[in-house]
Design brief:
Structural class: alpha/beta
Number of strands: 12
CATH superfamily of the domain at 150-233 and 283-339: Bacterial extracellular solute-binding protein, family 7
CATH class of the domain at 150-233 and 283-339: Alpha Beta
Shape: globular
Helix content: 40-55%
Oligomer: single chain
Largest sheet: 6 strands, mixed
Strand order of the largest sheet: 1-3-2-4-11-5
Radius of gyration: 20 Å
CATH architecture of the domain at 150-233 and 283-339: 3-Layer(aba) Sandwich
CATH topology of the domain at 150-233 and 283-339: D-Maltodextrin-Binding Protein, domain 2
Order of helices and strands: EHEHEHEHEEEHEHEHHEEHHHEHH
C-alpha cells in the first residue's frame, strides 16, 4: 500500500517547492520524481501546473512535492512501478523496444502546435493506442509532445545534405529513424547530458525542440539551428503515476482527478506550456550574439518530405504489429490536430 509521505526522509536529490503552505495543509502529498534541470520548463512550469490543477480539483486535499536527481531518465518508469516515487515524466524514446505505439505522435509532417498535438495524442491513445497496454504497471495521467525538433549544431548547417556524416545526439524512436535516413551518426545520451556532450566535442550537434536553446543552454554550445518547417520529429512523453498511490486515495478524490485533471485536460495544459517554452527558446536564440537560424530551402523540404513518407510507412507497419490500427490512429491525429 502506498504511503504518500514515505519518501521525504530518505530520497536523494534536491526538492523543489511547488506550492506555498498547501504541502503542509493537504491530506495527501505526492512525491514527484523529475530528471530535467531545475529551471527547465518541465520543472519550472509543467509540474507546478500539475500541482495547481490537482489542488484545485481536490480542494487542497491533494498536493505534491518535486524531487530531482532520484534516478536517470530511462529509470523513471520502473521507479514509479516500484513505488519509489508517486509520479514522474517519461520520454518514450529513452527505452527502445519498450514502447512502439508511442512513435505515432513522433512522426514528421504533422502540422500544428504542441498543444494541438498533445490533445490529439491523448484522444488517439484513448481510442486506439492504449489497447497495446505498453504502460502496464503504471497509471498514465497525461500524454504530450514537444514542439518540432530541429538540428542544433556548433558549425552552420545550411542544407539537408550537410547533415550526412555528422555525429548527432538523437533520441531513440522516430528521431533515430530520421537521423539514420539523413546519414547522421547517431549518439544517444539523455537530454540532461547534451550540454557536456557538445562542449566536449563528442557530438557535432543535437536534434531537439527550440526550448532546449534555453532549457539546456544550447545557445552556448550549439550556436546554429537548421530549421525544417514542422520539425524532423516530435518527442513523445507521458506523465505517469503509481497505481497503488492512486488506488489509496479516497474514491471521491480519484473521481475528481480523473474527471478534471488526468487525461486530456492535463495533456492540453502541458502542450500549451511547451509552446510557450519553445517561443522562449527561439527568442533566446534570436537575442544571443553569434547564434543563427538557417531555414531549410524549398528544395530541401521536398527532399525531407520524401524521407518522411518512408519513415511514416515504416512506423505504421511496426505499430500494426502490436495489434493497433496504426493508419486509423495516424489519421485521427492529423484530423484532431487540424480541429484544434
Amino acid at each position: 500500500m502506498a504511503k504518500f509521505t514515505k519518501l521525504t526522509s530518505f530520497l536523494a536529490g534536491a526538492t523543489l517547492a511547488l506550492t506555498g503552505s498547501a504541502v503542509f495543509a493537504a491530506d495527501y502529498t505526492l512525491t514527484i520524481s523529475s530528471w530535467a534541470p531545475p529551471t527547465h520548463g518541465i520543472n519550472a512550469k509543467m509540474w507546478p501546473k500539475f500541482v495547481e490543477m490537482v489542488e484545485e480539483a481536490t480542494d487542497g486535499q491533494v498536493t505534491a512535492e518535486l524531487k530531482l536527481g532520484i534516478a536517470p531518465p530511462p529509470a523513471q518508469m520502473d521507479l514509479i512501478m516500484d513505488g519509489a516515487a508517486d509520479a514522474s515524466i517519461i520520454f518514450h524514446g529513452y527505452q527502445p523496444g519498450r514502447f512502439v505505439t508511442t512513435k505515432m505522435i513522433e512522426l514528421p509532417g504533422y502540422e500544428g502546435s504542441a498543444e494541438a498535438a498533445s490533445v490529439a495524442y491523448w484522444r488517439a491513445y484513448d481510442k486506439h493506442l492504449k489497447a497495446a497496454d505498453e504502460h502496464r504497471g503504471v497509471k498514465v495521467i497525461a500524454l504530450h509532445t514537444h514542439g518540432p525538433a530541429q538540428l542544433h549544431s556548433s558549425s552552420p548547417v545550411t542544407t539537408l545534405d550537410e547533415v550526412s556524416g555528422l555525429k548527432v545526439r538523437i533520441p531513440g524512436g522516430v528521431g533515430g529513424d530520421v537521423g539514420t535516413a539523413l546519414g547522421a551518426t547517431g549518439i544517444q545520451v539523455p537530454a540532461p547530458k547534451v550540454y557536456e556532450t557538445l562542449a566536449s566535442k563528442a557530438a557535432d550537434g543535437v536534434v531537439m525542440p527550440f526550448e532546449s536553446r534555453k532549457g539546456f543552454k544550447l545557445t552556448e554550445v550549439a550556436q546554429n539551428v537548421y530549421e525544417v518547417p514542422g520539425g524532423l520529429y516530435r518527442g513523445s512523453f507521458a506523465f505517469i503515476m503509481n497505481e497503488d498511490t492512486f488506488a489509496d486515495l479516497p474514491v471521491e478524490l480519484q473521481q475528481a482527478l480523473d474527471e478534471n485533471v488526468f487525461g486530456e485536460p492535463l495533456s492540453r495544459e502541458i502542450g500549451k506550456i511547451w509552446d510557450e517554452i519553445d517561443a522562449i527558446g527561439r527568442e533566446a536564440t534570436e537575442g544571443t550574439e553569434g547564434n543563427a537560424i538557417n531555414e531549410a530551402s524549398a528544395e530541401d523540404l521536398e527532399k525531407f518530405n520524401a524521407i518522411a513518407v518512408d519513415v511514416r510507412a515504416k512506423v505504421i507497419d511496426e505499430v500494426n504489429g502490436t495489434g493497433v490500427d496504426a493508419q486509423a490512429a495516424y489519421d485521427m491525429i492529423v484530423t484532431e490536430m487540424v480541429a484544434q
